[in-house]
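Deliverable D2.4 — example input (structure tokens):
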């Protein structure tokens, strides 16, 4: 057993040595916007480099003030909340014309997507936030053959989204068949106080710190690929094990996954993807450019640079953890 443990630690040390000499790679830039409602704020990170035209259209509408004093006009329980189409008087807001469908990312809980008509290239200003995993129904081959364009994700304020989803709905003439109204008495005149209002949408900042929430090697979402991302996966393996669904690894309200390769499980393959991403100059770019793919980048593709001294202690911890994971797995098999 001692020989096996020594062998595992040595192999782990080789992986760790590669980590020690690699540099952290920056994540891609995004735009952080705040949807201010009369029920609280929702912060959304836009995928600027993934769905360029859709994000540009959304940002242009924000800049023109089109979303100010509009409403969430549709709530479908265990599905989504929808807004961005009508003002406080239930009039359609001006838009900049239809944009092309750009389906690339699944409609998972917490993602924001463009609403559209039956035809694929008909999205204008209306958007919805998924409150559950709608990846099957809203993807290609689902309820609509072409899918719906996801262009961002909620990084703070899902409790507000959930609260809006819980508002009672009332049936009125189309398109207000699922209109959420607060403290409303059926048959009474609808007041602004009854409506779920988008008071404004504003650009909070341009930032490099967020990325595609579905499959990405930056597991701690700090904008860098380094040993800390590997440590999170190692900790998950040690505390939960590999035989569990990736949904069990949500972190608070930001919906970050340790399932870096998108196979629905957290295991050693995710750890390898993180290692390879760190070592590859182009790994982050390839994952963001094709967020549903999980390429294994070529090792040693980038110049090797000694990391900051603070990283050493983390890497030593990673080595010890890797060795222990392998040792425990072998003991279980032997038993």
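Example output (designed residues):
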């Amino acid at each position: 057993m001692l020989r096996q443990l020594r062998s595992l630690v040595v192999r782990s040390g080789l992986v760790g040595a590669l980590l020690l000499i690699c540099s952290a790679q920056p994540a891609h830039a995004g735009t952080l916007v705040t949807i201010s409602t009369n029920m609280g704020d929702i912060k959304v990170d836009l995928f600027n480099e993934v769905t360029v035209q859709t994000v540009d259209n959304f940002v242009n509408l924000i800049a023109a003030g089109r979303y100010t004093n509009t409403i969430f006009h549709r709530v479908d329980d265990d599905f989504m909340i929808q807004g961005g189409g009508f003002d406080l008087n239930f009039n359609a807001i001006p838009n900049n014309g239809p944009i092309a469908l750009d389906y690339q990312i699944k409609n998972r809980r917490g993602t924001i997507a463009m609403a559209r008509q039956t035809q694929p290239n008909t999205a204008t200003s209306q958007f919805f936030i998924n409150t559950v995993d709608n990846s099957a129904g809203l993807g290609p081959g689902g309820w609509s053959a072409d899918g719906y364009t996801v262009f961002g994700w909620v990084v703070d304020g899902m409790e507000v989204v959930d609260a809006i989803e819980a508002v009672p709905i009332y049936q009125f003439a189309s398109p207000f068949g699922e209109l959420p109204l607060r403290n409303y008495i059926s048959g009474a005149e609808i007041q602004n106080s009854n409506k779920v209002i988008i008071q404004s949408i504003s650009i909070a900042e341009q930032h490099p710190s967020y990325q595609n929430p579905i499959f990405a090697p930056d597991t701690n979402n700090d904008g860098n690929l380094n040993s800390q991302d590997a440590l999170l996966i190692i900790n998950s393996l040690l505390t939960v094990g590999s035989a569990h669904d990736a949904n069990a690894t949500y972190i608070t309200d930001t919906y970050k996954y340790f399932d870096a390769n998108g196979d629905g499980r957290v295991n050693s393959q995710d750890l390898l993807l993180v290692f390879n991403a760190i070592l590859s100059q182009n790994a982050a770019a390839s994952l963001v450019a094709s967020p549903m793919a999980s390429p294994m980048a070529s090792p040693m593709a980038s110049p090797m640079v000694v990391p900051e001294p603070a990283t050493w202690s983390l890497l030593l911890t990673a080595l010890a953890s890797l060795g222990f994971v392998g040792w425990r797995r072998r003991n279980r098999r032997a038993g």
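The longest helix spans residues 310-334.
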